[in-house]
Give the backbone structure.
Amino acid sequence: MANYEKTYDLFTLAMRMQEAGEGVSLEDIQQEYGVSRRTAERMRNALLSFFPQMEEVDMGERIKRWRIPQRSLNTLISFSAEELAVFKTAISTLKKYSMNDKADVLANVELKLRNLIKPEQKLKIDVDAEEMMKSEGLALRPGPKIVIDEDILLKIREAILSSHQIRITYYNRQSGKISRNTLMPYGILYGERNHYLLARHSDGFYGDEVHHFILTNIMEVEILDELYQIPKSFDLEKYSERSFGVFQEEPFEVEWLFDKESASDAKRYIFHPSQEMIENPDGTLTVKFKAGGRVEMDWHLYTWGNHVKVIKPEDWYEKPINS
């Protein structure tokens, strides 16, 4: 191992020792850096010479652990929950698309930033970042980017984090009418053609169901004094997995057959979290999953032209595209 690599490992280990409240053991160092126990001991001792304030952590177990006090590496730089949530979202997305090497690099950057947060701020930022992660579902697709009013988005996020109801001024493109709605915001869902606010009407309108509001149609947002609570039974990830994209309808069995020419490209896609891919002997590719959202499936299938055939549902081609 080159000297700079050893220095880098020591640097990251120092940050891990500061970040881990329960401390880091020799076994942890061995596993993380792929070294022998003797090398792990040398790494710990090297850090001890730089950080004599390193302390042994008593976790009530036989394995010894060490940590470096927070103040040892802190600076005056501060970070927000939104900034940390963006890192976590990006890391999760990279892993979802099997870009684990880039996810690891970004995770190291996030670790470095976390070590710069003041101890008294860390707990609140962690809680806020966790809540923000829960409230925003990310569905990335290639194509044009949608421009959203940042002030409106920030107010919605603030309301979700503080559990305050909102009143929005909303433009309905189909009717051309403008309405005012008092809502309990549940989260934000990013889709291919539009991004949506998921919310329930405070007065029970729309059958007490979660309603989709196109973010670009929201003209104004007012944060109200009234509080609300998202039911524990609501999970944004599970909610979004019921559909292909963002449209909610009863899930159904889907089976697509990609021809030999497009099979290699199709294998690079994650069409749905529940998908099953089968490489057929003739070089074609079968993709199976269960979801609703027929209109968005049609939009996506159109991009593949004649290279894909819908096997299930069997009546796919008999129904009009907007049914």
